[in-house]
Design goal:
The structure is a single chain. By secondary structure, the protein is mainly β. It has one domain (16-155, 206-342). The protein is built from 3 helices and 21 strands. The chain has a 4-stranded antiparallel sheet, with no helix packed on it. The protein has a 4-stranded antiparallel sheet with strand order 7-10-12-11. A 4-stranded antiparallel sheet has the order 8-9-13-14, with no helix packed on it. A hairpin with a 5-residue loop joins strand 17 and strand 18 (295-300). It is globular, with a radius of gyration of 21 Å. It comes from Sphingobium indicum BiD32.
Length: 345
């Protein structure tokens, strides 16, 4: 839900159709999470929100400010978004890394969510275009009245590039060349020529440091949360994903420390109160206790699990299946494995 989108805040998640509990009986509804972190609950017969949607003021600065909307919608039901970034959120493997990130923060344009794009300096997009919630959506347990939502918590560090400058710098460039830095500047990123417009764009997704490739924002970078379906209140919330496949210079640390990693792919909830989910960049598939949020089982997939698992039953036996295909953007191993598990009797 966004007006005059210049942040790639499309609705990447699937809508979930449920009968929403209310004081006047159940209402045919759909629940839709957004990249900004807001969760919308709509009457699917009329499209009207079941919880108020407020208008929040949005900055009108940067390039072509007259084209920016003065307000943006915001759901009052629930948000997965975190408070605005501050310089204190800058992080690094060493004091030098942190200093570089703090300098970059001070030099950038940042006015909170919906900071308009700028061409004279970098602008911070937070959350980045991977969410919040991107593909995978949410899972709902209608019996216990719980929503399970995994989410990302990462910024982008971007700049619009005037057309003449983009042509001088050779936009576009092959992906293999763009990964080491954009326009000769520090940090992993990508260049999009945006042909037919006055500007190209240089994107540093996740806001990475030069050389090491580590992220400027402190962890966690992703989480998973249980939400009361009726009220929208948080039941539990935790960092999601370990550092075992992440590290400086792209070298896996193999450390099983829960730092909260970027994640894409949804969850499935069973009648027995288990949440099955992969999604994170550590290539693990997990079973999480719906009531407590604690991991009760996990296994290593042969490739990235950026997909939503499926649970089904045959002849009284329950099975769990997930496609382990990986994803280039998530930088997980690519594969073509369809992995199946049989649940104990």
């Amino acid at each position: 839900m966004v007006r005059r989108d210049v942040w790639d805040y499309d609705l990447g998640a699937q809508a979930t159709l449920i009968d929403f509990p209310s004081g006047r009986g159940s209402v045919p509804a759909l629940i839709l999470p957004s990249k900004q972190g807001d969760i919308y609950v709509l009457d699917r017969r009329t499209g009207r929100p079941l919880f108020p949607v407020q208008e929040r003021a949005a900055p009108r600065t940067g390039v072509e400010p007259q084209l920016r909307s003065p307000t943006q919608p915001s759901s009052t039901y629930h948000t997965l978004a975190f408070p605005q970034l501050t310089e204190a959120d800058m992080w690094g493997m060493s004091p030098i890394d942190q200093m570089i990130c703090r300098i970059q923060f001070r030099r950038a344009e940042y006015r909170g969510m919906y900071t308009p794009p700028t061409a004279d300096k970098r602008f911070i997009e937070y959350p980045g275009y991977n969410g919040g919630t991107d593909w995978g959506g949410i899972a709902v347990d209608p019996v216990h009245g719980v929503i399970v939502a995994n989410y990302n918590n990462m910024p982008n560090y971007n700049r619009l590039v005037p057309r003449q400058e983009a042509e001088r710098l050779g936009f576009p460039v092959p992906r293999s060349e763009a990964r080491g830095g954009d326009m000769g500047e520090a940090g992993h990123g990508s260049r999009d020529p945006q042909k037919g417009t006055p500007y190209a764009i240089a994107v540093n997704p996740g806001w990475r440091l030069p050389l090491t490739g580590l992220l400027c924002k402190r962890p966690p970078y992703g989480g998973i949360r249980a939400i009361d379906l009726r009220t929208g209140r948080t039941i539990w919330d935790r960092a999601f994903g370990t550092a075992r496949r992440n590290g400086p210079w792209g070298i896996a640390s193999m450390l099983p420390l829960t730092i909260g990693t970027p994640n894409n792919g949804g969850a499935v909830v069973t009648a027995g109160g288990l949440v099955f989910i992969a999604a994170a960049t550590d290539n693990l598939i997990r079973a999480i206790n719906l009531k407590t949020g604690k991991t009760v089982w996990q296994d290593t997939l042969p490739a990235g699990g950026q997909a939503t698992p499926m649970v089904y039953e045959i002849n009284g036996k329950q099975y769990l299946v997930i496609m382990a295909g990986g994803h280039h953007f998530m930088e997980t191993p690519i594969g073509d494995a369809l992995v199946a598990y049989a649940l104990p009797d």
